[in-house]
Design brief:
With about 325 residues, this protein is of the alpha/beta class. The chain has one domain: UDP-N-acetylmuramoyl-L-alanine:D-glutamate ligase (3-Layer(aba) Sandwich). Strands 1, 4, 5, 6, 9, 10, 11, 12, 13 and 14 form a ten-stranded mixed β-sheet that branches. A hairpin with an 8-residue loop joins strand 7 and strand 8. It starts with a strand and ends with a helix.
Length: about 325
């Protein structure tokens, strides 16, 4: 199994089933896209470590305990200050989509910079580095460190996984485009939606390989909301050598709307690290995506047999 490093922010999530403005009670958990990917990968047998920053408070310790519970190594999580990022999430209903509001502008993570990192220790034994576009949106410090990490990963021979993960509440398309295109250029594995390709790269899937020589795999995942509790997903996985497989639009029930993409990414990175064929990798990652929507909270940690069993049902219907 691989040793996988990720860089990103983990936050306190406060969730409500009604509108945020009308709520006086919230359910609490912890979540952040890169941390969720690592938790998924550890459950699948990988060694995982996290670069982030947390406050030196009891709440910061609670987050560390959460990460340790999912097997995430936190040696390189900087603990200082007193501010943890928070986000509020409402699930929406049949006529109103879900909504997220952030309180993260001054979190300890936004102050983390290259001077805080021992890169030799951080990358010791690391096979793969994973990051998303969110980490390039939060502050000048987080963006500069993100690009430094991409350079260090490339220099040290670690495979790079990059998820566009554009969030309109964090920055505009115009502000994001230059940064996301630059980050994508460093990646061996690109994780995107069709809208990401059209908006930021302005390329078709096959044109990506012509324009991005580092890219070995491109995963394109598109979700569609059918009703408040039923969505569909379609997934295509492309390889530089011309191999490709598509899971056509597949409906599924939804209990929880958050975290599916992180489960998909974790399951896909596991599949590719094992050298699985394109079809098997696509079905396994899609199964993780769908199963996460049946589970409350941000984090998905299922064993490989459970995911593979469900993946086989996807294969039977195609």
């Amino acid at each position: 199994m691989s040793k996988i490093l990720a860089y990103g922010e983990i936050m306190l999530r406060l969730s409500t089933q009604s509108n945020i403005a009308d709520s006086d009670r919230f359910d609490a958990c912890y979540g952040g896209t890169e941390a969720n990917v690592l938790a998924c990968l550890h459950a699948l047998g990988h060694q995982v470590k996290y670069l982030s920053a947390l406050p030196d408070t009891q709440l910061g310790q609670a987050v560390l305990n959460h990460l340790h519970g999912y097997g995430v190594e936190t040696t390189d999580v900087k603990v200082c200050g007193d501010t943890l990022g928070i986000y509020f999430a409402e699930n929406g209903n049949a006529s109103r989509g879900s909504n997220v509001e952030y309180l993260r502008r001054h979190s300890e993570f936004t102050r983390l910079c290259a001077e805080d990192v021992d890169f030799d220790r951080l990358f010791d034994g690391v096979d793969m580095f994973h990051v998303s576009g969110i980490s390039f949106a939060l502050s000048d410090c987080s963006r500069e460190l993100g690009f430094r990490l991409l350079d260090e990963a490339r220099k040290r021979g670690a495979a790079i996984s990059f998820d566009f993960n554009y969030r309109s509440k964090l920055w505009s398309v115009d502000d994001a485009r230059k940064q996301l295109v630059k980050a994508a250029g460093a990646a061996d594995i690109l994780l995107a939606s069709t809208l990401d390709l059209e908006t930021f790269l302005r390329l078709t899937p096959r044109e990506v390989f012509d324009n991005y020589p580092n890219c070995r795999y491109l995963a394109v995942r598109d979700r569609k909301a059918l009703t408040s509790d039923k969505h569909s997903v379609s997934v295509s996985l492309y390889a530089r050598d011309g191999r490709a497989f598509t899971l056509a639009e597949t409906p599924f029930a939804v209990l929880e709307k958050i975290g599916g993409g992180d489960a998909f990414n974790g399951c896909l990175l596991h599949s590719l690290s094992q050298g699985w064929d394109i079809k098997r990798a696509t079905l396994f990652a899609s199964a993780g995506f769908i199963l996460k929507h049946q589970q409350r909270g941000d984090t998905f940690a299922a064993n490989a047999d459970e995911i593979a069993e469900f993946a086989a049902t996807l294969y039977q219907t195609r």
